[in-house]
Design goal:
- The complex is a heterodimer of chains A (366) and B (415).
- Chain A is an alpha/beta fold and 366 residues long.
- Chain A is built from 11 helices and 11 strands.
- Chain A has helices at 22-31, 60-64, 74-89, 112-124, 143-152, 167-180, 197-206, 253-268, 291-300, 302-306, 321-333, and strands spanning 7-15, 52-53, 101-107, 158-162, 186-193, 215-216, 218-226, 238-247, 275-279, 343-349, 354-362.
- In chain A, a hairpin with a 4-residue loop joins strand 10 (343-349) and strand 11 (354-362).
- In chain A, helix 1 (22-31) packs across helix 11 and helix 3 (74-89) crosses helix 5.
- Chain A is globular and about 65 Å long.
- Chain B has 415 residues and is an alpha/beta fold.
- Chain B has 13 helices and 15 strands.
- Chain B starts with 11 loop residues before the first strand and ends in a 9-residue tail after the last strand.
- Classes of the chains: A alpha/beta (366), B alpha/beta (415).
- Strand 4 (158-162) of chain A pairs antiparallel with strand 6 (162-167) of chain B.
- Chain A: It comes from Amycolatopsis magusensis.
- Chain A: Residues 9-210 form the Beta-ketoacyl synthase-like N-terminal domain.
Chain lengths: 366, 415
């Protein structure tokens, strides 16, 4: 059954450097605690930056047991745990075969560490095919989404989206489309990144030198469902009221972001005066300027932008940044008095020129 | 889960095709190669194959990126992004739509991929082994992000009002991207979509399949009693989709209509295909397209040429289509397994099969495996009047996607 009603977010979770669940994340955001620290030298050898945002004590087997986790990589572990937490909140029994639940996950490249390890093993082994067969499934970018489906019996549409730092918002839009087309009754939509030396070094070189901020990891995940399908007992936390995306061709990112946000607000019929919180992914241009927050301050004023702490508290989570910022919005909005300001804006920018933004109406009637 | 929507939205048609493949660049050359049953199997040259016993693959050997990539420096792009960008330029040219008209409309760029820029990632590992992680090339590192398979197209074609994402759902990703675009156009999220898939041959993936004992020693023989597995291939297939109203208004040539698609997840095994999961996917696609199994004239199979795939796929086809299924061909016999490009290139093959009225063959075929009781159109293409063609795609992770294409018979909109 297709639906034309706007999709809503009615549950969420996050596994992050603040801790393993939503409560930890919300507490960390509200207290504006910095969760980055020097990476544990016993666990992480030879990484380029001095600080990292890692999920405390996270190893997949510690969270999920020994069965099925021997060859599970970190990004899959983070995703499976986040999905486990969210499904538990929804009271979906473990292992229930559900062909009505879709799963959409954002990533940059899956596990760069798993991929590079396999190539390294091929180049350094006695023979080039002397690689660990159990490591093969972890070397495709959709490994985490497939693992989550296997662990939790999710047989609905299962997709993995890669769009740089705009990934989370593109994944939300893809989820909206699945619901609109009736391909799933509800969707778990998340984005995940793992901390690893491989990712850190690739990022280090991509940015052309020492990092301006620590690398972070985790998975933020949301239940997205049609507004008219929310069962009694579940609270609407936000409605996806609009979105926009574009590619900046002239190199002037502030112009592209401004145009995208303005166009989105106009189409949704929401004036800037109704925006309670606005937050971006702290994208830094080549001169180190925080492009997004400057634009958002111009559009909405300091108070609206300062309401939600910036994403750097947990480190740079790349493709997961936008959804972590959405989780931060929901954390701060919970129980807060908002007066007649009832919307939030989340932006994302990637250095390949892509820009995305989403508009959320906070709270709901149910 | 019923998938036939109450509101079917706008009809969606294919009006442009762009191909970069081991058997030809551009749709005319590609179609002729499919009709002739050509392949270009040769020893892999993209990476050092020393120490591997079997080294054949299906590389794109005559690719000249500067012919198609003019607006941006192709040296900034990884191998897969060069393929996707060139194929998008080819699709746009083929569609007869001007770049200016495309830029003025709302566009979606959705590219499927298995590996993104893993060929570049392999090279970073080589650098690391030689000189430590500090010695990796920044230029290579900047090519890695998989999202660039889509954003590079936007930059090359100077499209700003555009949604871009790469769908990295492994070897069915091309079908995912086409399906995403189908929904975006019929519901009005986009006026045009450039969609398909791209991948480049890389050491990581070759080694992975080799270790799983899935690489054929010489060539790919889907459904043959003596099949030995896949050959890794590469390339890109990009399709231009638009609404039927838009296509007829501008007098565009219509290759085929996208009738619908299905997605399912096996939730069963990370690498083994699952009969029930893929049968369910075919049923969802048929329901979404409003097509009965008996109306399908041809199935373009995932058809990798591994025992696990071919047995499972034919069994699932018989579950869905009964004892007398339509003809089932594998274009991978000619193209190799081009990973995220596979179902996109096959979709283009389906489109030209409908338009040019032929069925591409399954080549390298000697004797059909009695356990794969299908007519795979061995070795030689046949003339055929195809109305509805089904394109199968399965992937690691149990991610299944099937798209259905139909001949556009020129009926007015709404009839």
């Amino acid at each position: 059954m297709s639906t034309t009603t706007a999709p809503v977010i009615s549950a969420w979770t996050a596994i992050s450097p603040f801790g393993p669940d939503r409560v930890c994340f919300a507490e960390g955001v509200r207290s504006r605690r910095v969760a980055t620290a020097p990476p544990d030298p016993d666990r992480w050898s030879r990484v380029p930056e001095a600080m990292a945002g890692t999920v405390p004590g996270f190893e997949p087997r510690e969270y999920l047991g020994n069965k099925g986790t021997r060859a599970m990589n970190r990004v899959s572990g983070l995703t499976v745990v986040a999905a486990k937490n969210l499904l538990a909140d929804l009271e979906v029994p473990p292992g229930a075969a559900r062909d009505d639940i879709g799963f959409v996950l954002g990533t940059t490249t899956g596990s760069a560490q798993s991929m590079m390890n396999l190539t390294r093993a091929s180049l350094t082994g006695d023979k080039p095919d002397h690689v660990e067969p159990a490591a093969v499934p972890g070397c495709v970018m959709n490994c985490a989404a497939g693992q989550a489906a296997i662990w939790h019996g999710l047989k609905g549409p299962n997709a993995t989206i890669a769009a740089g730092r705009t990934t989370g918002l593109q994944a939300l839009d893809y989820s909206r489309r699945l619901l609109r087309a009736g391909r799933a009754a509800r969707v778990l939509c998340g984005a995940a990144e793992e901390y690893s030396p491989a990712r850190s070094w690739v990022e280090h070189h991509r940015r052309g030198g020492p990092a301006a901020r620590a690398m972070g990891e985790g998975c933020a995940m949301f239940l997205v469902e049609p507004a008219d399908q929310v069962p009694a007992g579940r609270t609407v936390l936000a409605t996806l009221a609009g979105s926009d995306s574009r590619v900046c061709l002239d190199g002037y990112l502030p112009g592209a972001i401004t145009a995208a946000v303005r166009s989105m607000l106009t189409r949704a019929g929401v004036g800037a005066h109704r925006v309670w919180a606005a937050t971006g992914g702290d994208f830094l241009d080549t001169n180190g300027n925080a492009v997004e927050s400057a634009v958002l301050r111009e559009l909405f004023g300091d108070e609206v932008v300062d309401r939600v702490p910036d994403s750097g508290l947990i480190g740079d989570t790349s493709s997961a940044t936008a959804l972590f910022q959405l989780a931060a919005v929901l954390s701060v909005a919970e129980g807060a008095g908002r007066g007649d300001r009832d919307h939030a804006v989340v932006t994302a920018v990637d250095d390949d020129g892509s820009v995305a933004c989403a508009l959320f109406e906070l709270g709901g009637s149910r | 889960m019923p998938s036939q929507p109450a509101d079917p939205g706008r009809r969606v048609v294919i009006t442009g095709l762009g191909v970069v493949s081991s058997i030809g660049t551009g749709v005319a050359e590609f179609s002729a190669a499919l009709r002739a049953g050509r392949s270009n199997v040769r020893p892999i040259s993209v990476f050092d194959t020393t120490g591997f016993e079997h080294v054949n693959g299906c590389e794109v050997t005559d690719f000249e990126p500067e012919r198609w990539i003019r607006q941006i420096d192709f040296e900034e792009l990884g191998r897969a992004s060069r393929f996707s960008t060139a194929a998008a330029r080819l699709a746009l040219t083929d569609s007869g739509l001007s770049q200016e008209a495309l830029a003025e409309a709302r566009c979606l760029i959705s590219v499927g991929s298995t590996d993104g820029e893993s060929h570049e990632l392999d090279q970073l590992v080589s650098m690391e082994l030689h000189g430590g992680p500090e010695s990796m090339s920044p230029r290579l590192a900047r090519r890695i992000s998989a999202g660039r398979l889509a954003t590079s197209i936007a930059r090359e074609l100077e499209l700003s009002n555009v949604e871009t994402s790469t769908i990295v759902t492994a070897c069915s990703a091309g079908n995912y991207a086409i399906g995403n675009s189908f929904d975006a156009i019929r519901f009005g999220d986009a006026d045009y979509a450039l969609c398909g898939g791209a991948d480049a041959v890389c050491r990581k993936t070759f080694t992975s399949f080799y270790r799983l004992r899935s690489i054929a020693p010489d060539c790919c023989r889907p459904f043959d009693r003596n099949r030995m597995g896949i050959l890794t291939g590469e390339g890109a297939g990009i399709l231009l989709l638009e609404s039927l109203e838009s296509a007829t208004a501008r007098g565009a040539r219509i290759y085929a209509e996208v009738l619908g698609y299905g997605l399912s997840c096996d939730a069963h095994h990370p690498v083994a295909p699952h009969q029930g999961g893929i049968a369910r996917c075919m049923e969802l696609a048929l329901a979404n397209a409003g097509v009965k199994p008996g109306e399908v004239d041809l199935i373009s199979a995932h058809g990798t040429g591994t025992k696990a795939n071919d047995l499972t796929e034919t069994a699932a086809i018989r579950d869905t289509f009964g004892e007398r299924p339509p003809r089932v061909v594998s274009m991978k016999s000619m193209l190799g397994h081009t990973m995220g490009a596979a179902s996109a290139l096959a979709a283009i093959g389906c489109s030209v099969a409908i338009t040019d009225r032929f069925i591409p063959p399954t080549i390298n075929h000697v004797e059909t495996d009695p356990e794969c009781a299908i007519d795979c159109v061995p070795n030689t293409s046949v003339e055929a009047d195809l109305r509805i063609v089904q394109n199968n795609g399965w992937a690691f992770g149990g991610n299944n996607s099937v798209v259905l294409f139909g001949r556009y018979d020129g009926q007015a909109v709404g009839v």
